[in-house]
Specification:
mainly alpha; 86% helix; 0% strand
Amino acid sequence: MRDKLLKIKRVLLLLIFLAFLKLFFLGFLTVFQAYNLRAEEKKVVYKACPKSFSQILLIEKENIYQKKKEVEAKLKELKLMEKRIKEQIMALKELEATVDSKLKQIQVIRTKKLDLLVSAIAKMQPSKAANMLINMDKDMAVKILSLLRSRQVASILSAMPPEKAAELSEALSGYKAKKF
């Protein structure tokens, strides 16, 4: 879950970066378009200028036009990337919702299984339940004991060896026993 959030965060940072880059290119493109429009409106070859200077101006004008085309292509590419990123974000959100749903289903199933086990242990004789809990994982045994009624817990703990009963009682209470 944490990995997914990190991925989403990275994608969002990339999207913000691309938005700033897009704004930069738009400003750049606007300046070139304004310059190009002025030059196209005039279409004047300066007669007072030397011929070589006019040629240089024409070459520069062509260079600017080529750069404008490059900027437009980059802008289209950025828009396409932005669209793809948005689609990926939506897909990630859908995946996150699916994963959350599946996790909730798993939790419901675990709870039902635990309730079934607690019910079975509650119906057992205390000595058999004690033997079962002794051989079980400590955390699971504590969880089961915490879901039983206090009378049943007392019966089961009294059927256990004192060391194991003390250990489970300590874990069940949440306090650490002080050594004497």
